[in-house]
Amino acid sequence: MAWIRTIPDDQWDGGLEPLATMVRDRTTGRIDNIMQIHSLNPASLLAHNTLYKSAMAGTATLRKVDRELIAYVVSQANDCHY
Q1: Residues 6+ apart with CB under 8 A from 53
Q2: Helices 42-57 & 64-77, crossing angle to 10 degrees?
Q3: CA dihedral sign, ordered 59, 65, 67, 70
Q4: pLDDT digits (tens, 9 = 90+) for 25-81
Q5: In this model, does residue 2 exceed pLDDT 70?
Q6: Alpha-carbon distances of 77 from 41, 71, 74, rounded to whole Å
Q7: Residue 67, exposed/middle/buried by CB under 10 A (0-12, 13-18, 19+)?
Q8: pTM assigned to the model
Q9: Coarse DSSP helix, strand, coil percentages of the chain, rounded to the nearest 5 percent
Q10: Per-residue confidence at 13, pLDDT binned at 50, 70, 90?
């Protein structure tokens, strides 16, 4: 597994603070590692989150649960553990 330096989420202040609010899981209060790796580049965090929200908003033809299942199957096919 790769090691990527990050700023711990309890130290996200300044420009990262509003982004933390956007990406923090409302249930667990955590920030997923996949988002945490962007902590040194807030612009990439915003871009990643925008892309994710756009992909998950989708169209009226697929429900969110269907999009999540598709993402899960693609991750499994790619041997991605995220």
Answers
A1: none
A2: 120
A3: negative
A4: 888 888 988 899 999 999 999 999 998 888 877 777 888 788 888 888 998 999 887
A5: no
A6: 29, 10, 5
A7: middle
A8: 0.71
A9: 55, 0, 45
A10: confident
- Written as six digits, the tokens of 46 are 């915003």
Look-up: residue for tokens 């598709």?
A: 70
Contact 40, 6 (CB under 8 A): yes
The pLDDT of residue 50 is 92
Answer left, alpha or beta for residue 32, where phi above 0 means left and psi between -120 and 50 means alpha.
beta
Say if CB 65 and CB 73 are below 8 A apart.
no
- Rounded Cα gap, residues 2 and 79, in angstroms: 16
CA atoms of 65 and 45, how far apart (whole Å): 24
Compare 82 and 77 and report the one with higher pLDDT.
Answer: 77
Which SS3 state, helix, strand or coil, does residue 60 take? coil
